[in-house]
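Run log, item B.
One chain of 157 residues. Sequence copied directly from the ordering sheet:
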Amino acid sequence: MRDAGPAADNEENEYVRVSEYMTRKVLTAAPDDGVRETFFRMREARIRHLPVLDGAQLVGMLSDRDLRRPDWVDEAPDLSHDYQLDDSLSVSDLMSHNPIAVHTYDDLSKACALINTHGFGALPVLDKGDHLVGIVTKADLVRAFGQVLEAHHEHIG
């Protein structure tokens, strides 16, 4: 479920918080979850990014790309490892550790910069107590940009 997100309704308020566009309903995984089970949960939910929690602590991020072909499979041009999507591997074997996150109160431009700089598809969103409360994806940023453009066109049109 995504928030409607008030885009640039107030010309004087150019600061747009991450919380205005993040997805609040977030599916998560645990480090010990099997990768096959997790793949099918993600496919059923039609999502591509999954925060990984150990209890309430954010410990990683997992993408559908990580599940399809992990980086370690093609370690070097002359070395390849077998990889099968089965539950003999756990989420912790494939996830990105120590994920970069944004906070609900951060400016949306910070999320844009991090996603562009690091090539991420999504960022976990934390509250002031560093608890996971959402995720902001490239799709959320495109939606925000579209609303800003609409407001701009209404202003000049």
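Observations after the first pass:
- The longest strand covers residues 57-63.
- The chain has one domain: 18-156.
Flagged for discussion on Thursday.
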